[in-house]
Amino acid sequence: MPVSLLWAVDVYGRVFSLSTGGQQWEHCCDAVLEFKRLTAVQQCCWGIACDHHIYLNVHASDVPIRYQEEAYENQRWNPVDNFSDRLLPSDRWQWSDITGLEHKPLDGFLLPSTNWEWEGDWYIDENFGGEPTEKGGWTYAIDFPATYTIDKKWNSCVRRRRWIRYRRYKATDTWAKIPSEGQSGPLPDPFNDISCGGWEISEEPRGRLSLWAVSLQGKVWFRGGIHHHTPEGMSWEEVSLPGEVVQISCGPGDLVWAVLWEGQLIVREGITRDCPQGSSWVVVDSPNPEVGTIHVAVGVSVVWAVTKDNKVWFRRGINSHNPCGSGWIGMVGEMVMISVGLNDQVWAISREDRAVYFRQGVTSTELSGKAWKAVSVPRDGDIRPNSSTSTSSLHSAGCFFSGEVRAQSVMSEDSDTEADPQRAVHEVGASVSSPPSVHLSNDPEAPKPRIPKVTSDSFISEMLSDRETKRDGAAATSIPEEEVTPGDAEAKSPPPALVLSPSQSGGPGDPQWSTVDLEEAQTHLAVGPAAGRGDSSDTCSLSSVVTCMLGLEGLYGPDDHPLWAWVSGGGCAVDCHTQLNWFNSVTALTSSIQAMSLSVSPAQTAAWRKQIFEQLNERSKREIDNFKHYEQAIEQSVWVKKGTMQWWRDWKPHKWVDVRFALEQFSGPEGHKDGIVFLYYNFNEEKKYLHAFINEVTILVPVLNDSKHTFAIYTAERTKQRWPIKLAAATEMEMHDWLALLSVSCCDSRGIQGPPSKQAIWSITCKGDIFVSEPWPSLEACPYPTPCDQMFWRQVGGHLRLVECNSVGVVWGLGYDHTAWVYTGGYGGGFFQGLASSTDNIFTQTDVKSVYIYENQRWNPVTGYTSRGLPTDRYMWSDATGLHECTKASTKPPSPHWTWVTEWAVDYGVSGGTDREGWQYAADFPTSYHGYKTLKDFVRRRRWARKCKLTTTGPWQEVPPIPLSDVTILPCGDQSVVEQIPLWAISNKGDVLCRLGVTLLTPAGTSWLHVGTDQPFKSISIGGASQVWAIARDGSAFYRGSVSTQNPAGDCWYHIPSPARQKLKQVSVGRTSVYTVDENGNLWYRQGLTPSYPQGSSWEHISNNVRKVSVGPLDQVWIIADKVQGSHSLSCGTVCHRLGVQPMEPKGQAWDYGIGGGWDHITVRGNNIEAPRVRMPSLTDALRPPSTLAARPLPAGNTENGNAVQC
Amino acid sequence: MIADDKDVLRDVWFGRIPTCFTLYQDEVTEREAEPFYLLLPRVSYLTLVTDKVKKHFLKVMKAEDVEEIWFEYEGTPLKWHYPIGLLFDLHASNTSLPWSITVHFKNFPERDLLHCPCNSVIEAHFMSSIKEADALKHKSQVINDMQKKDHKQLWMGLQNDKFDQFWAINRKLMEYPTEEGGFRYIPFRIYLTMSDRPFIQKLFRPISPDGHTHTLGDLLKEVYPVAIANEAKRYQVVIHGIEPLLETPLQWLSEHLSHPDNFLHISVIPAPSD
After folding, report:
1. A1055 within domain boundaries
2. How confident is the model at residue B194, as a pLDDT?
3. Taxonomically, which superkingdom (chain A) (predicted)?
C-alpha cells in the first residue's frame, strides 16, 4: 500500500499531516492561514480557513494535471486565393471547435483561474487518426461537416487543421483559494463545514468527486464538476433542505448524512452516477431523543455519530439499498468528532485529552471495530520549534481575532478580499451567540467549561481567543511595535497578571524567540491538569511557565501533547492489516525501538554480518576446497515421499483417475541430488506406472482453479506434445507441499539455488504466476541453439501481469491493478516455505482484478426487454461467450486465494459504449454490440464487474504512487552501482514517464519525470544507444529524439506511420532491432534503421499469431505466440524463440517453440550472454539467402548501434 | 545483492573438516594400516560418521584385538558427544590440515569418555540436547508440541546429512514471538581448553531488561570476562571455525550458528603466539 496521509487541525488552527509510513506529525508550513475544517481524499485536501473561504490543496504528483485545449482552423478553396480563410457566409467560423458550431478564436482561450498556467504556445497537431499528415496538419473534405481525409483530392473544397495547447494546474502542494461563487453571484454567507467524497459513484470522468458544504446559516451547497482535469470544480449549487444543517459528511460512495441544528440527522437519497447530488432527504432520529446529535461521519457502508454528551454511536444495517440503516448501537468512548476514511477505517478526537484516536480492528466483517487507540507521535514543531511559522500564525490569528485588517496576514489577491476576514469575524460572532452554541469559556461555574457544545469550531475559537488574550499581554512587552492596536477591538481585556516586568521577559536572546517560547508554553500549559483551566490559576501558571521557559529553552516534557480539533482520514489508505508506527509513545519507548531497530534493519549491512559471511567463505576455502577429493563421511541414501493424487489420464476418454504418486530422491554421480517421480495407476486391472526424471522436468505449473487443486508437470517431450502430466492434490496445502518439494528437488538436480541471475529470462502466465529461467549460452548459439523447450523454469512468488528486466539485475513488475513493483533480489515467497525461500527480501504483495459476467436480455413485443430468452438463446447470465452460465451468486473468484472486495456493479466502461443503464444493443446474439438502441435491436446485454483481491508474498516491493500500464528498462552492461539506469514507463492513464534515480543500489529509483505527449500512450521500449520507441493508444508509433545520458527524457516525438491499416499495440527495441506487434497479431520488423536515421524506413511483416514480442540486448527475438500445434493438442500463449538471428540477419529464419500455453508475457532483456563462437563459415553463409545479404539494414562495423552496453 | 541469512545455515550445515585417521602405533595389526582420509561434517558426531574408518582398520586387525573404538588427538581423547566442529576448534584450530586423529581399539579411557555402543545412544544424547535447548528457548513448548515423527526427522536429517529434512522441522524450533524480540534464554555453552570445568552454561537472555539487544560481547562480559579482557588479544572466541565480531547480536547467532542440537557451542582458545 502506498504511503498516504492523515490530516488534522490542532486547536490553534494549524494544519498537520501524518504519513502512514511516518512517525511524526508534519506541520503544513504552507498554511499561512489557520484552518477550521479539513476534508481529505487521496489526491487532494479541501479545507475551510478561518477567513471562511474554501481552500484546495492538490497533492503534487510526478504526473502534472494537464488539460488539452483544442481549436480548429477552417479554410475553403476558391479559384483566386486557392485555400484561404475566406469562407462562405453560410460556413462555420474560421476558428471553431470540432463541430464548427462554436466560435473559438485562439486568443479567446483563457486560463480558468490563477491556479493554471500555459505549458507552451499553440501548435498544429500533425497526427490524424494515428497517421502523420506531413502537410501542416491539414485534412481535406468536400464540404463542412463531412469526412476528412489526409489526401487532397480534386474535389476537396474545404480543409481544416487542429491546433492544440496545454494548460497545467500549478497550485499543487499549496492552499489555493476557491472563489465562493454560486450560479448567481457570490454566495450569501460563508462556509462552516465541508465534506468531500463520492469518488466511487462513477469512474467517469476520471477523478470525479462530490464536495458538500454547509454555510453558517445552515444551508447546504453541492459543488459540481470536480474531476481530474478540473480539480477546483465549477460552481456551487444550493441543495434544498428540511431544516438548518450544522454539519455534513459524504462517504466514498453514495452515503451522505447531515446533522440538523435540532439534533436530528438527515440522509440523502437518490444519489446515482447520473445524479451525484441526490434527490431527497430522509430524517433519522438522534440516537438519544433527549440529547441531539452534533456530529456524523459516514464511509462506504458505515455511519458513526456523536451526540451532545460526546457519546459515540454506530449505525446498524447500512448498505447501498438502505442508506438509512436500522438502528443505533452505543459505543465506548467519548469523542468530539469522528472521521471515517478509506476502507471504513475510523479516527476520532477524544473529549478527554483532545488526542487523535484510531479505531482498531475495523474489518469488512466487523465494521464497528474493537477498541480506540491513541495516535501518539510527536509533531515536528515539538522537536524543533519553528520561529517563522509560529510568528506568522501569531500574526494572522492576532489580526483576525482582533478584527484587525492587515494585508500580509491573509492570502489576498485583490482588494475586496481584504475586507473578508473582518466580515467573517462579525459573522462568527453572530453564529457563536446564536442559541445552541453558548460560549461558556469564562464561566467558572461550568463543570467542563472548555467542552464545545455544538461543534468544535466554538472550541477552536475559544482556544484561539483565549490564547490571543494571553499572547497579547505577553507580546505587548516583548514586541510592542507589532501589537499596537489602535482601535483595540479586543472583546476580552488582558488579565493584569500578565503584564510581565521587563526583568522577567528581557532575558538574553531576541524577542521573536521569546514569543515562540510563549506559544510553546501555552501548548504545554493547555494540557496541564484540569485545575489549570480556571482563569486565575491559568494566569499564574502562565506567568510561571513564562519565566520558566525563558530560563530553560526547549523544555517540552512528555505530557506536552497536541490538542486536536479536527481530523480527516478520507485520504488515508490503511486497513486492519496495515502496520502503523503511530502508537508508540516516543519518550517511553525510544530506547527499545532503537535497540530493536539495530537488530532489524541496519543489521543487513552491519559489519558483524559481513564478517560472518566473509569468514565462512574463508573457512570453506581453508577446510574444504583443497580437500574435495576426500571421501564424504555420510553417503547419501534414497529418500522417498509418497502420496495419493488424481491424474488427468493420457488416453481417451480423458478423466481424473486416482493414482499413487511418489518422489524418490538420491545423490547423483557428481554429488547433485536427483530424483524420479513415479505415478502408479491401474489399467485394465493391471498395475502400471509412469515416471519422469526430476532432472528432465522443465517446469511445474500450478493450475489452481475453484474445483481442483491441480498442477502440471512438463518435460521437454511433453512440451512438444503440448500435453503435460496433470495432477490434482486433495487439498490446497497438499498441493503446495508437493509443489514446494518437487520444485526444490528440480532445482537441486540442476544445481540451482538462491536468487535468479541478472541474465535470467522472466515470464508470466495468464494467471499471473511468475517464472524465471537461467539462460544457457547455447540458447542463442548459431547454427545449433539449444531448443527452448528444454529451458528449466522455476516459480518466483508474487502476482504480476507484466515483468521487465535488464542485464544488470534491475527488474520491475506491474500488477493487474497497475501497481508497480520492484524486484528485491530475493527468491521464493508464495507457497515456497522455509528453505526454498529467502527471508530478508520477501514482502506481502496484493493484486486486484475484476471478474466480469454478462446479463443478457431479449426483446419481445409484449413486455419489452426481459430476461426470458428463446430456448436457443444463451444463458441469461453468462460469461462473455455466452456458453457458460455465470450468475451473480454462482460466480466465484478465480481461485480460493482471491477474495471479493466489492459487490457486483454495472460496468459502463465496455468497448462500444453503453446506454445510461449500461446496456449494449445488438440485432441478435452473438454480434457486435453498440451503446444505443435502434429499431433493429432485439437483444441487449450489459457487463457486471466485481473486484477481487489476492494477497500473497514475493520478492517484490511496491513503487508508489503512480499506477503503470507498461515499463521498460535499458539493457546496459556492467556499470558502477551509482550510475543511472534509464527506465521509462506509461502510466495507466497513458502518460509517458521517465524514472530518475534508478541505479543498482536503488532499483526503485526516486521520482518520475513526466514526458509530454499529445495523446495517451500504451507501450514503450528503450533499446541500444538509448533509442526510445513508443506506441500511442490510437495505434501509431513514435520515436523519441535525442535521448541520451545527459538528456534522459529526450526532446521530441517523431511520428512513425504504422503498417498499412494496422493499429500497433506493442513495441520492443533491442540493440539495433525494432519489432512491433499490431492488434491483429502481426509481428513487424523495422527496416532501414541507421545511426543517422534511427527512425528507419518501413515495416516488414515477420509473422502472424503473435501476442507479444521481447527483443533482447543482443537482438534476440522471443515472442508469445497464439495457436501453436503440438502433437497432442493446440496451445495458445506459447513462448517462442526466433532462430537464426545474427548481426547480419536480424530477422532470423524460423520459430522454435517453448513452454506454453497459457503464457502471457516474456522478457529476455536481461540475457546478454553471447553465444559461444562456433565459426562455421561455409554453413552460415549457406543459410543466408543472398537477397537478405544485399538488403541488410545496417552497415557492418556500426559502432554506435552495434554495442549493447550503450546507455 | 546482499547474501541471504539462509546461506549461513547451509554453510554451517555443510561445514567439513578434512581428517586423516591413523591407527595408534601400539595396536596389533596383521599388516600395516594405511591412513584413512575423510571429510567429517562439522555438525555431526565422531562415532556417527566413522563407520567407514572402523571398517577400514578392522580389515587389518584380528577380531580378538578389537574393543570399543575411540579417538585421540595429540594425547587428548576426543569426546564423541561433542560436535566434531567443536572438538576441532577446541583442540586443533590453527594447526595444519588435514586434522590428524589417532584411532584406538584398546584401553578405552573410562575417565574421559562415555561409551557409545550404538547409534541410539547418540540419538538419545542429541535429542536430550535439543529438548534442553527448547526448555531454555520456549519453556519446551515447541518441542513438546511436536510429534514423534518430527523428532525422528530431526535425527534422521542429522544422521543422513539431509539439510532440507532437518531444517523443515528445526525451523519451528527457531521461531519466537515477534513482540519479544528473541528466545527466552539463549542455549549456549562456552568451552575453555585451559579449564577443568567441561563448559560454562548460564541463563542469559537475548534482550536486556531495558530493551537493548545483547551481543556476543555482552555474553562473554557476563559469563567469562577473561576472554575479552583488554590486554593484547590473548584468546580467540571461535564458533564453527570463525570468529564473529563481539557486537554480533546473540539472538542472531543462536538462530544461525547453533549446532543441530540447538546449542551455540563457543570455544575460547588461546590466541596463537606468532
Report:
1. yes
2. 72
3. Eukaryota
